[in-house]
Sequence to fold (565 residues):
Amino acid sequence: MQPIISISNLSKTYDGGVRALNSVSLDIEQGEIFALLGPNGAGKTTLISAVCGIVTPTSGTVLAGGHDIIRGYKKARAMIGLVPQEISTDAFETVWATVNFSRGLFGKAGDRAYIEQLLRDLALWDKKDAKIMELSGGMKRRVMIAKALSHEPEILFLDEPTAGVDVELRRSMWNLVRGLRERGVTIILTTHYIEEAEEMADRVGVIRGGEIIVVEETEAIMRKLGKRQLTLTLTEAMETVPDALAEWHLELADEGHRLVYSFDANDESTGIPSLLRRMGDLGIGFADLDTSKSSLEDIFVGLVNAQQEPAA
Amino acid sequence: MNIRGVWALYSFEMQRTWRTLWQSVVTPVITTVLYFVVFGSAIGSRMEDIGGVDYGAFIVPGLMMLSLLTQSISNASFGIYFPKFSGTVYEMLSAPMSPIELVLGYVGAAATKSILLGLIILATANLFVDVRIEYPLVMILFLVLTALTFSLFGFIIGIWADGFEQLSFIPMLVVTPLTFLGGAFYSINMLPDPWRSISLFNPVVYLVSGFRWSFYGEGDVSIGLSLGITAAFLIACLAVVIWIFRTGYRLKE
Fold:
């Protein structure tokens, strides 16, 4: 199936000379939730802004639903809803007026029933006649989402949708995003919360220094790059790892009270039984053992650092 | 053509007028009434007719033009500057709106407000002096042309402005002095040379003169020249606006 968004060799160099995007190519499939991860200044917002028409690309092409965002910008933009990172609304307008304004701006005829349902879904119906300046931060963010969804877009960009919102609202946002996906909306979100991507995204892209360094299905990336760890709580602390255990590349933690063994969960042989046997032979006792898998955050940090090292 | 988008933008801007009724309509009307009280009644009653026109009636086109120019600029400049300031401009830039449609929405609303204000001032003037309009169609043409041209000019200022100070700089320090010196309250034919010749370099002279011609059939310069200068300024403003959207100057990076 043709991707709903196809980005080819997209580059952006700002007037000041900063190269924010460097030949980025990326396909977004219809109906998926795609999370774009990256440290501050990696180019996430520039990428979204270029696709949505807020920033003019220096080179490259972007197709949204098969429409070029420059030559066929009207058709392309009509498909896209954008929730920017900053809460920018007309403080003196009512919720009802500003959401209907957004719908009109995108060329859609008024639809009271749709807007009413949208506001109800976002728990804003009771506030429809309130001025935006009277709303809480969380409500304002929901107004931004309502504006972005007012014209029934097929693609929704959420730039840091849960930045600075409390845990409860974050959970309700996640539910909202899942609900939108069930209705067939393709969602591209940027986030600093790796947990958010791990929880929701079908695929994850990592961007660093204006370049996409990895794009994978979330499960696949966890499987491929995820490490498991075995932590042994020792009965007696040790100062150094004995040479006899060198082949397992163990690390000491908690001032010598814990022995940590990292292994690849996908390997046929994890090396755990032989490690435990060798420890028994050496008379090293342990009181407890625990295994854990690395989170997407660990993978993300590892990826970003791995990319930084050669340049350093 | 995204007609609904243009209408949404136009309606949004017009609603801002009703929300800020005092600032948008009442304040300019009160200011104009004060001009009539001071120049029309207090001073005007002691002045001779100018070209056979009572002084109170003579200043009506100039006063209308003064409000038309300043209000067109301030309405249009504020209309585009505020979304830039508040960040809501992202919505205009990401909407399926062409530059022409955006200009139609913003400039159309600003010009409409100015025209309405001009007509309100004309109605107010009628309460004080006997105003006659010899060429009503030409008067409407000038009203619309001037409102459009200076709303476009205001739109350019709104995009150029980096702060509220710059926003008021040109209307207050350039346009208002040029209007006062452009024959709003006198005929430039009353000035001795070289001041009369120098005045001809003031573009507002041609606007006021042409507008006054539509009222009383007489102006400081020919009506053709007045129309030509106004149209030339309109074309110049259009060219700048086209350049702004082509380059994204101060709108997008």
Notes: Chain B touches chain A at residues 2-5, 7-9, 11-12, 15, 19, 86-88, 90-98, 248, 252-253 (CB under 8 Å).
